[in-house]
Amino acid sequence: MTATNSPAPIRVGLIGCGQIAQIMHLPFLAESPDFQITAVCDLSAQTATAVGRRYAARQITTSSDELLANPDVEAVIICSYDHAPAALAALAAGKHVLIEKPLAFTPEEGAAVADAAAASDRVAMVGYMKLFDPGFAEGLRRFGEAGEHRTRTVHDLAGRFDIAKTMYDQERFDDVPSEVLQRGQADVGERIARHLGDSAEHADLYTLLLMLSAHDLSVVRVAFGVPDRVAYASSRDPRHLLAVLEYDDAAPVTFEIGAGSSYDWWDEWVGVSSDTTEVRVEFSHPYIRYAPTTVGVRETRSGMESRGRLTAGPDDPFRRELRHFALAIRTGVDPISTVGGALEDIELASAIIKALPVSARHEGDGR
Ligand SMILES: NC(=O)c1ccc[n+]([C@@H]2O[C@H](COP(=O)([O-])OP(=O)(O)OC[C@H]3O[C@@H](n4cnc5c(N)ncnc54)[C@H](O)[C@@H]3O)[C@@H](O)[C@H]2O)c1
Question: pTM of the prediction?
Answer without folding.
Answer: 0.95
